[in-house]
Design goal:
single chain; about 240 residues; alpha/beta; Rossmann fold; seven-stranded mixed beta sheet; 7 helices; 7 strands
Length: about 240
């Protein structure tokens, strides 16, 4: 099995907010990364989007620009409506993800956990579907080997409730990746989502927290196979 990763997220910009630095680290080492995007984010904000361009088209262009910055190879859009993924047929979503996993044959799959980080219904739904797809394929010889949930260490955001995000106790975090060498690329990738007010606000947070260390870490929790051991590398 070749070293490769597959990100499974709900919206354009999910790939950049939580994982851009980690993915950039590995793609610079020659590790391929692909992205599944369940929606085109058509219900997101429209900062400076021309009136003749619909939001979904604008956001698709933005995620392609962000993907180029962090080295993502291919993007697979599932075609669901932003904000309505939890209403979609679960088996249909699972089967679409399975088909893509079989096509790209990743060793590592990364998605949202049950908390969805922000609790967004789409985040929770895509995480559940990706987990089911992984469970069904991991038993196959050519199936993926490890499933990670993107997370945040509790110590990194002590006032998480103020920001509306979920954290995980530090002892449960599997990998804490130093992305200081890739932080500028992460900020550039987030900035590519220029129609999104949240992206602008998060860039400000990252810039202001360079010295505190928050901006220079990304976190993952190993969901399958379950383990309490700490890791330093996705592929160990």
């Amino acid at each position: 099995m070749k070293r490769s990763t597959l990100l499974v997220f709900a919206h354009p910009d999910d790939e950049s907010f939580g994982m851009a630095g980690t993915i950039k680290k590995y793609t610079q080492q020659g590790v391929p990364a692909d992205l599944i995007c369940a929606t085109r984010g058509e219900k997101g904000s429209r900062v400076n989007v021309p009136a003749n361009i619909d939001t979904g088209t604008a956001r698709e262009a933005e995620v392609r620009a962000a993907a180029a910055i962090i080295g993502i190879r291919d993007i697979y859009f599932l075609g669901y409506i932003d904000g309505e993924l939890d209403k979609a047929d679960v088996e249909e979503v699972v089967n679409k993800i399975k088909d893509i996993i079989r096509r790209v044959q990743p060793e590592i799959v990364i998605t949202f956990g049950p908390d969805g980080i922000t609790g967004h219904n789409d985040h929770v739904a895509i995480g559940k579907a990706a987990t089911k797809a992984f469970e069904r394929l991991s038993v196959e010889e050519s199936g993926p080997r490890k499933l990670y949930y993107v997370t945040i260490a509790a110590s990194a955001v002590p006032n998480a409730d103020d920001f509306g995000v979920a954290t995980r106790p530090d002892e449960e975090v599997t990998i804490s990746t130093d992305i200081s060498d890739y932080l500028d690329s992460k900020i550039q990738a987030i900035a590519a989502h220029r129609s999104q007010q949240d992206a602008r606000e998060f860039i400000k947070i990252l810039e202001e927290s360079r010295e505190s260390g928050f901006a220079e870490k990304e976190y993952l929790y190993l969901a399958i196979p379950g383990s309490t051991a700490k890791e330093t590398d996705l592929f160990q």
